[in-house]
Amino acid sequence: MTTPGEEASVTSDFVRSYVITGGRTLPDSDDLALHTLVTIAPDRTPPLGAGPEVMAIWKLCAGGYLSVAEVAGHLGLPVGVARLLLTDLFEQGHLLRRAEPPRAQNVDRATLEKVLNGLQSLIG
């Protein structure tokens, strides 16, 4: 909070995020969760007039599936900004997304010991 006569400092990160998003509000976290996996749809070309951030997302995601958190981290963007840009690409049909892979289930110790004993008998 600022006192009268004192100006609030505005960081360049805040201004940059505002410019990148065009001042739009960020999407709900339920729309595109941090662990959602995204990639570029096959046979797509980048949208006309795409900004440098969208082109960076395009190049990064063209190699395969990455999580939303990974995209934000690789590009050094706030997660909300990355989610907004990814949501735009998804709505335009450029992006494929899928839920995170299911977690591995725990296997009991007896089963693991049987597998180990079987491998040891094969190897000698």
Secondary structure elements and their pairing?
Elements lengths: L11 H10 L15 E4 L11 H10 L4 E2 H8 L3 H13 L3 E4 L10 H15 L1
Antiparallel strand pairs: 1-2, 1-3
Helix pairs in contact: 3-4
Structure description:
With 124 residues, this protein is mainly alpha-helical. It has a domain at 28-99: Arc Repressor Mutant, subunit A, CATH 1.10.10.10. Helices cover 45% and strands 8% of the residues. It has a three-stranded antiparallel sheet. Helix 3 packs across helix 4. The radius of gyration is 22 Å and the shape is elongated. The model is unreliable at 8-12 (pLDDT under 50).
Strand order of the largest sheet: 2-1-3
In the CATH hierarchy, what is the architecture of the domain at 28-99 at level 2? Orthogonal Bundle
| CATH homology-level superfamily of the domain at 28-99 | Winged helix-like DNA-binding domain superfamily/Winged helix DNA-binding domain
Helices, by number, come to: 5
Biggest sheet, in brief?
3 strands, antiparallel
CATH fold-type name of the domain at 28-99: Arc Repressor Mutant, subunit A
CATH class descriptor name of the domain at 28-99: Mainly Alpha
Order of helices and strands: HEHEHHEH
Kindly state the percentage of residues in helix. 40-55%
Distance linking N and C termini: 72 Å
Shape: elongated
